Structure formats: C-alpha cells, structure tokens
Amino acid sequence: MSPAFLSTNQTDATHVLFVVHGIGPTLGEENAFMENVTGFRKSLKKVLKHEKELQTVEAELIPIEWHNSLHKRIGSNMDNITPPYCPPNIKNFQHEYMADILYYFTQDRGQHILDTIVKSMNEEYDKYMESHPNFKGTFSLVGYSLGGICCYDILCAQEDGANLEGRAKINIKPQKLKFKPHFLFSMGSPIAAVMVMRNQTFEQYKIPDYCIHHNIYHPFDPMAYRMEPMVDPKYRELSPMTLPVFSSPRFNLNHRLGFGPFRYPRVKPHALPLPHLGFATLIASLLSKVGGQSKDFTDIPSNIDNQLVPEDRASSTDSNISVSDNEEILELPRSDSPEPLEIITDLSTSMPSNDIPEAITPEDEPLCHPPLKYRMDHALQEKLRIDNVAHRYMITLRAHFSYWEHRDVAHHILKSLHDNLDNEPFLLINV
Predict the structure, then answer these.
(1) Residue 235: helix, strand or coil by DSSP?
(2) Does pTM surpass 0.90?
(3) pLDDT tens sequence across 367-379
(4) Any idea where the DDHD domain is (predicted)?
C-alpha cells in the first residue's frame, strides 16, 4: 500500500510512522482505514501550520493494512454458513467487523494477521531506506484499537529471551522487525484489558526499553483502558496525563458537543471501583456500525444543545486553542432547563488541569514498584453533563472513532516526536 505522505520534502523527513488499523474494511466503507489516515494526515498538517515550534518535524505516514489479506484467505466461507434470512447489514457487521476480533484471538488467523503486519512493515522499511539512503530519523508505530494490540504483541516478541512467561500464554509467534521503533502510539486500544484476559502481567509482557509507549485514549471510549495500573495497581491513584487542548471549537469533540475540558478527580484507594472488563462494552462499540454511525458529529439532533451543557465555557477561548484561517468559533446555545442535569463524572474533587504534573515527582507518585520510567497514559480532555441515556451511549460509542481527526492527538504525537529529535535514532536491523 502506497504511503500517505505528510512531509512536503521527503528527503528531509525526520520521522516515519507506520499506521496499523483496527477492525473493519480499509476501503469503500464509512470510517474505512484509508479515509481515516487521510483525516489523520490533515490533522497533523493543520497542527504544523499553527505550531511553529513543531515545524522542524517532517513526518511521513505509511499505512499498514491486514484486513483485506485476511478476508481474501477466508473467502466466501462465512457467507456459505450464514442463514439466508440474516439482514444484510447485520451480516456485514458480523463478517467485516466483529469477526476480526475473533479471528485475532485464534491461533491460525491471529498468526496470519501478525505475519501480514510484520511483512508489510519490513517491506515498506526496505523501500523507504532504498529510496532515502541518507535517512537519519526514526521509525515509530501508531496502532488504533485492535491495531494497537497487534503492535504491542509484535514489540513484546522482538528481544530473544524476553517476556518468555508472557509469550507462552498466547499461541502466536510474531516475526522480527528490521528496525527498532522509537515510539508506540496506541489510540483507543484495550491492550491492558487483553493482558488481563490472557492472565499476563506487565513484568511478564512488556515492550523493549528502546521503545516508548504512549497509550492515548478518550475518557468516554468503551474500548480504551489504562496501562499504568498494570505496572502496579496503586498507579490507578495517579491521574493520567491530559493532552493540551489545541483544537479549535469548530473541530474539537468537546466544543462540538458543548463539552468543557475533562479533569480527573483525585480518588482515594478505597473509593475506587473493582476492575471491570465487561465484554458488553466492546460489543456496544461495535454496534455503532449497524446504524451507520459516523465520526462526523454534524448529524446530532438539533435539540441536543438543550441536553448537553458546557461545564467550562471559558475554556473555548483558551489561549492554547488554535483556529485556522477558514474556521469560525461556533457559539453553542445555553440550556434553559432550570433542573440540574445528571453528571457523568463526579467532579466535586477535581483538580485543575494545569495542576497535573508534567512529570512524576516523588511527592506526587504513589509508593509503587516498579517506578514508572515515563508516563504511559495520555487522556483527551472531555467532560459533559447529560440527561439522556440514548445520547450518553451515542457519545460514548462515537468517542472511539474520534482519534483520527482529533488535533489534540495530532499535536501530542508531533510534540512527542519533536521532543525526541536529538535522541539517538533506533535504526538497527535485526538479522
């Protein structure tokens, strides 16, 4: 698959990002992979346009596709066994989306998915180095949803003799990459949940030290889980890092729906709920496809502004927000309802986002072992008040598809790459 280039001057590129998709078709469908990569590329370009500090970053996106290869191998076998009166949209949902999850957690199909990803990455790496022999930059991975799990499994198998106990608990054997990724950016990916289901601990199953993992997630995404509590359960007391708000009100999910910035409460250990890995949340996310849910939020009912109330309208004029030349700030009507609305998240003890430490300090870090080498969990800032259960599910489901064109995500990735420009690139080839 041809690269989706972000860099306007390919010879001066500083970073190459291999982008791995999640479940579902990659072409010809709503929220298809290539459409999402195009949106991702546009978001990165818009951030670079307004953030002069980051303009030294020249990044290129190379999509890595595995869905078509898998489904060509399966052929018409699923159609042959489907009852004739199954509604076409339900059948398409089962075969093209939900089945991808089941395929990955079987030995033969899961092995094929990982082999396809590694082979594609190595081929694209060889092509890139052949056409750019003087390239001195870094390679990184971006994994969305199931793609994040695939990338994590591949990285955990890159070092001989490492993670043997954890790798013994799965029946797939990822092949070696020809390069050492500098970053793994997972977006809306249930990596930690899968590790719990497999009975893997972080010490048994972790990526190599040369790769930095940023677990990016939307706070309402039912597919997303934190990684830091896998290191030590006490890290659930440590609020995730919040991504700075970069997007304009016209674009950003919170402003489009009248949200204010989401701030995480300080929670005492005894007040935390027990871990919950409800498979129903995964199914609920997938069911959004049945009704043709779009990642574009313009089709929200016109009266939703009476049901969604911004908690902090002043944040829409925050100095960190950047508005492009062709964009306008949209004013959302205030609710006239005198009755208090249900609050999804109890913010009575919330802390201001600018009080969240940029780095772990001894006084802020829980007494955990082992200590974190760097922050892994990075959450988007979203908060809403809502009095309609249907809208709650709508927003929750759509949150999973918001990463590709969310400029806060694009800004975070570019800034992370920029901050590591001077670090030694990891281009050593495994032979």
Answers:
(1) helix
(2) no
(3) 676 789 999 999 9
(4) 177-419
